[in-house]
């Protein structure tokens, strides 16, 4: 019976270990047979190392299919190989699970695979250092986001993904039978997070949300990860500062602590203005700029994908668009004092891509009811939500950040499917 | 227009601020009118403070419904009140949103409310310091869990909640129409997390899962939060050590850093054996103990709720039950070498309550296929999963921890609904 435990990861093998016994677990990436011995490259989650195999083990190594899971044990010695300062002279060479060839993709990345093939074999694709780097960065970013929000006094919450009413009109919701009733999958925690400011003051949630949208783009999925915050007694410009801090901290962490993963993903350094501030354009400024560029737009028009692409060419990197026309924004968005055609709202853009949407919310139940009616929604179907506004709702602001899209931007990926382990779209339900 | 920004939280008001201007945002908990002035207790997320209101503001304060959202500004001065070292002499007193009475529950907790009424008014219930404490602890625990797992080299992942096949038989799954196909809500990330060990080595996920179970108990919900881990090259006893570390760190953090919240929840200190180890009983030991107590059980029988309650009386606090009969465990569980009737499996119990289930997994595709057949499952419907085992699957172990249940135990709650903000069960879909 093989001992499955290892003592070290590949990256830990250094000259300080020369003469020591080690056990390494990983997979066979390469074997070079030179007769009496073989050089085996073994990779694990941290990197690659070289194993020198002799005797009976040579045949075993030569016959082992690439990508098989192995565990080796032996003595660390200095190496003459240019890529490895040390190597392992193998005493025990055990194949744990043989890989079955042909493999659906080449996880070394030497042979490029079609995106769909990679997604079909995602687990194997994670042996490609570039793919692995993206998901290590994704994990690292979540920590920075949470630490930043906690540092600002936000409490992590879990709100339900199963909801009882198709509140925002019911479009694009997945519905299902729920013990003789109808239930839906949440598109966002919007209503819950607003209610929670009543007692918890500042809340955040990072979770999956669902949209039954028949989109075929590089930036839409039916299931996505959203970072949502909501805070009492903050105005919209305060939570824009918070966006800046969250995104800025992730970028700094990646640039400072994850250079290796960034490089593996093909990114040298993520640019983020020298003053760590993000430009704040108003909707009307954007309109002026676009009209000058020949776009036919007037106040109240939404900015089309084409318009946003043009804007993204004029404003490289991140920028906010704020003070949108009120009628373009959802019922819960607060109007701007002094100009009620405008709203206390903002989007964070990166080029044409919308990453964040947020704003100050209405806290007055009467105005909220009026806005529902104005937007053709039925206040009765929001009764569960509206009642919380009769319990002394504080003024509050918040935002939702599409984490998958942020990861696209930061890892230089052109398709959201590159930064989601098992993406879901109209065509893809497996693996 | 009222400035909605505050400068301080209630808990921050101390003698160091005497003479300083402050703005406090919160809600009116109490008003005592003594003629020319009124004492107003204002509570926010951190605690309560006293405001001294004079002049025109007295009438406003006296007439303000309790629980209304307010913001006050004034000067900090020493107080003669026994509960407050300092108080705020109010210059500005602004009611932001009036509470509408009668309120559905008394959030001060002075009048006890029925559990269902509290859930119907959860946002208001969060103004009850006991309820708030539970959810502050819940948030704090998530940080400790994540930090512990990251410290052990685990990568945070997000696997899909929408799945394409009812893989483990289809019982208790919520199903729905998905672009002319059938999709389901995931009950666990089991298959995904196993696959991911192929490249990411150690993964964890904290997310919502769904069970269409017609249960009416204090410990089952249709939507629950699970902490899942899976690790290559670890055996089941290694991941039991990890359970011990994760649970132990949460308990230590609560006992050391969250005494106030624990006390508010009604817990003095969470006991956790002096050596921070959790007893490891085998299934067969448990069987012997139960038979001695008169239970009619023989090898291979599952332990009923009644049996577990009896066991819980004999073993107070946390304990593991390990080495279950193989046939009682899911197809992916590894048999014990040397006794193939037993499995490398474990549950973490607290009294009768199962908190964690885990074990070593099969990594050999042939044995996995045989086990599927033995258990009456069709390997063909697992083809998407099985193919990953042909890519050099490492030996691996893992577990799933029901976070809601852990929070029940740690906060001394008798009902899982006390530790979930918006619980979902067969009857409850709102708010």
TrEMBL record, chains A, B:
It catalyses: tRNA(Asp) + L-aspartate + ATP = L-aspartyl-tRNA(Asp) + AMP + diphosphate. Its main location: cytoplasm. The record marks 82 as: Important for tRNA discrimination. Its EC number is 6.1.1.12. SUPFAM superfamilies: Class II aaRS and biotin synthetases, Nucleic acid-binding proteins. Coiled coil: none annotated. Its cofactor is Mg(2+). GO terms for cellular component: aminoacyl-tRNA synthetase multienzyme complex; cytosol. Residues 135-431 form the Aminoacyl-transfer RNA synthetases class-II family profile domain. Mg(2+) 2 binds at residues 354, 357. It is found in: Cytoplasm. GO terms for molecular function: aspartate-tRNA ligase activity; ATP binding; magnesium ion binding; RNA binding. Catalyzes the attachment of L-aspartate to tRNA(Asp) in a two-step reaction: L-aspartate is first activated by ATP to form Asp-AMP and then transferred to the acceptor end of tRNA(Asp). Homodimer. PANTHER family: ASPARTATE--TRNA LIGASE, CYTOPLASMIC (PTHR43450:SF1), ASPARTYL-TRNA SYNTHETASE (PTHR43450). This is Aspartate--tRNA(Asp) ligase. It comes from Nitrososphaera viennensis EN76.
């Amino acid at each position: 019976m093989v001992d499955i435990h290892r003592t070290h990861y590949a990256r830990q093998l250094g000259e300080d270990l020369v003469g020591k016994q080690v056990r390494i677990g990983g997979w066979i990436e390469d074997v070079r047979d030179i007769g009496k011995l073989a050089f085996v490259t073994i990779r694990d989650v941290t990197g690659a190392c070289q194993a020198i195999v002799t005797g009976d083990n040579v045949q075993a190594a030569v016959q082992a299919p690439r990508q098989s899971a192995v565990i080796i044990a032996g003595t660390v010695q200095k190496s003459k190989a240019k890529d490895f300062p040390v190597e392992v002279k193998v005493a025990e060479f055990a194949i744990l699970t043989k890989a079955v060839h042909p493999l659906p993709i080449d996880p070394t990345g030497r042979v490029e695979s079609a995106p769909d093939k990679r997604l079909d074999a995602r687990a194997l694709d994670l042996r490609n250092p570039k793919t692995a780097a993206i998901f290590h960065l994704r994990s690292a970013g979540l920590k920075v986001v949470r630490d930043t929000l906690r540092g600002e006094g936000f409490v992590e919450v879990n709100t339900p993904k199963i909801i009882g009413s198709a509140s925002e009109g019911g479009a694009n919701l997945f519905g299902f039978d729920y013990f003789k009733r109808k239930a839906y999958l949440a598109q966002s925690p919007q209503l819950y997070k607003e209610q929670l400011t009543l007692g918890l003051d500042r809340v955040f949630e990072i979770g999956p949300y669902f949209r039954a949208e028949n989109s075929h783009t590089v930036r839409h999925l039916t299931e996505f990860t959203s970072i949502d915050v909501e805070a009492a007694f903050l105005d919209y410009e305060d939570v824009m500062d918070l966006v800046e801090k969250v995104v800025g901290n992730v970028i700094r962490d990646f640039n400072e602590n994850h250079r290796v993963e960034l490089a593996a993903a093909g990114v040298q350094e993520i640019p983020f203005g020298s003053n760590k501030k993000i430009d704040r354009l108003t909707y009307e400024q954007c309109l002026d700029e676009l009209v000058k560029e020949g776009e036919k737009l007037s106040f109240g028009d939404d900015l089309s994908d084409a318009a946003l692409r043009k804007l993204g060419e004029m404003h490289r990197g991140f920028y906010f668009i704020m003070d949108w026309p009120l009628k373009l924004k959802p019922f819960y968005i607060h109007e701007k004092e002094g100009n009620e055609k405008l709203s206390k709202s903002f989007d964070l853009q990166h080029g044409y891509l919308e990453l964040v949407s947020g704003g100050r919310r209405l806290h007055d139940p009467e105005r909220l009811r009026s806005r529902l009616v104005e937007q053709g929604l039925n206040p009765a179907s929001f009764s569960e939500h509206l009642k919380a506004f009769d319990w002394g709702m504080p003024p509050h602001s918040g935002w939702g950040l599409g984490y998958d899209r942020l990861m696209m931007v930061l890892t230089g990926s052109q398709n959201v499917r590159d930064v989601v382990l098992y993406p879901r779209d109209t065509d893809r339900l497996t693996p």
